[in-house]
């Protein structure tokens, strides 16, 4: 340790600081106020637990660390936003599903993550730098009595680098509650890192680089020797690969034919009406017998239609969904989706509507992968309701509701 020397103090006196010991936190707080008022600047207090009000007694001013953390957070937030703006609007300006190239909500996750990341870095490294860390040793640690600073004693130390150090011992000796006032000697141990530590660190560092050299050598050289397998079971698993032999079977083939009667996934055809919407190859005119067209089924159909169909066809089925309107606003060449309420669609059997959802038609792709069998029937059942509602007459209204409508019309 080589601290600065105060006026009138040279390195030959061997004093690092003057230390006063107290047995009660109230005495420590009162002593801190006197040291603060005396104008000392290079001093500190040590306690085994936090003491309320000690910061004010010492005259410690608020740190600028919160502002450093705020600056780090603003940098992360702004940097994340600019990075995404550059990537999405300048470097790679792609329009996907009519979405804008830049939108604040879509960028919030990255902005949030970078804000947290840079704030944490600012707090961690700012705390280290402002606290003068890392510091591997302190002469106070060599004082036997100072070890009680972690258990049941309280201390004040005034360092020799303080401009008023010459008055320190007299001031601390006159403080009420000071049990012991003694000088802390300068740490005369060598600052040089022990040889064994240096050689050990160098050896560990070189060994840590060895895997990288081995990887580089393996990727850039050829060898007639087989590879080294750390876990051979992962490279040589007991299994048969395609187009290989297997003497377990009479034909000697590892690849086996499917068991008789096996049905591929998605190819089950035990109910033609339910699965394909046809009866003996002709479009079905009604729902399958296993499905009941009640109010709950209609509600499910409305939900499926809103999720998968309304984007293009619109909530009313007229073909003016969000995608269509977006294409029109941008002046794109866009084939307007079919109006489900037009006559050519209304005359179709419900099985044909089901087949359109399952197999697709013209520009409309198949939705078999996205929508299950029952949900397909629910969607077309709801389409039937939209078609009927679009051309409904007073005769289609239930008698109980019809009287209300007639009365409302007379009013």
Short description:
This protein has 14 helices and six strands. The protein has helices spanning 25-37, 54-58, 65-91, 104-130, 168-173, 195-220, 232-235, 272-276, 295-313, 322-330, 343-346, 350-359, 373-390, 399-410, and strands at 15-22, 43-46, 154-159, 178-185, 278-279, 282-283.
Q: What can you tell me about this protein's structure?
A:
The protein is of the alpha+beta class and 411 residues long. 45% of the residues lie in helices and 7% in strands. Helix 3 packs antiparallel against helix 4 (104-130) and helix 9 (295-313) packs across helix 13. The protein has 14 helices and six strands.
Keywords:
single chain, 411 residues, alpha+beta, four-stranded antiparallel sheet, 14 helices, disordered N terminus
Query: What is the tally of beta strands?
Result: 6
Oligomeric form: single chain
Low-confidence stretches: 1-12
* Main structural class: alpha+beta
| SSE sequence, one letter per element | EHEHHHEHEHHHEEHHHHHH
Strand content: 5-15%
Mean pLDDT: 85
Largest beta sheet: strand ordering: 2-3-1-4
Distance from N terminus to C terminus (CA atoms, Å) equals 100 Å
How many H/I helices?
14
Sheet with the most strands?
A: 4 strands, antiparallel
As a whole number of angstroms, the C-alpha radius of gyration is 41 Å
Shape: elongated
Please give the share of residues in helix. 40-55%
């Amino acid at each position: 340790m080589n601290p600065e020397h105060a006026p009138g103090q040279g390195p030959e006196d061997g004093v690092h600081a003057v230390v006063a010991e107290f047995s009660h936190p109230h005495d420590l707080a009162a002593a801190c106020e006197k040291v603060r008022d005396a104008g000392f600047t290079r001093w500190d207090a040590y306690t085994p637990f936090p003491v309320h009000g000690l910061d004010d007694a010492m005259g410690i001013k608020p740190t600028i660390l919160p502002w450093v953390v705020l600056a780090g957070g603003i940098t992360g937030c702004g940097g994340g936003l600019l990075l995404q703006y550059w990537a999405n609007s300048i470097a790679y300006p792609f329009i996907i599903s009519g979405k804008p190239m830049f939108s604040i909500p879509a960028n919030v996750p990255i902005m949030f993550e970078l804000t947290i990341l840079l704030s944490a870095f600012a707090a961690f490294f700012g705390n280290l730098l402002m606290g003068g860390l890392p510091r591997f040793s302190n002469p106070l640690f060599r004082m036997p009595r100072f070890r009680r600073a972690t258990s049941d004693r309280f201390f004040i130390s005034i360092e020799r680098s303080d401009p008023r150090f010459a008055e320190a011992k007299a001031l601390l000796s006159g403080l009420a509650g000071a049990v012991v006032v003694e000088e802390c000697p300068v740490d005369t141990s060598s600052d040089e890192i022990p040889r064994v530590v240096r050689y050990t660190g160098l050896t560990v560092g070189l060994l840590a680089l060895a895997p990288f050299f081995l990887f580089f050598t393996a990727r850039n050289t050829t060898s007639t020797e087989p590879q080294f397998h750390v876990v051979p079971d992962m490279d040589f698993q007991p299994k048969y690969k395609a187009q290989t032999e297997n003497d377990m079977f009479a034909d000697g083939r590892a690849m086996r034919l499917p068991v008789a009667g096996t049905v591929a996934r998605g190819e089950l055809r035990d109910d033609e009406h339910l699965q394909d919407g046809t009866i003996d190859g002709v479009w079905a005119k009604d729902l399958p017998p296993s499905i009941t067209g009640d109010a709950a089924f209609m509600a499910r159909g409305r939900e499926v239609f809103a999720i998968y169909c309304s984007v293009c066809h619109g909530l009313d089925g007229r073909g003016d969904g969000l995608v269509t309107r977006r294409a029109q606003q941008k002046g794109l060449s866009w084939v307007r989706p079919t109006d489900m309420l037009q006559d050519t669609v209304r005359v179709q059997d419900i099985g044909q509507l089901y087949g359109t959802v399952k197999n697709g038609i013209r520009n409309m792709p198949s939705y078999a992968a996205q929508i299950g069998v029952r949900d397909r029937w629910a969607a077309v059942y709801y389409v039937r309701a939209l078609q009927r509602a679009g051309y409904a007459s007073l005769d289609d209204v239930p008698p109980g509701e019809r009287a209300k409508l007639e009365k409302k019309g007379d009013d």
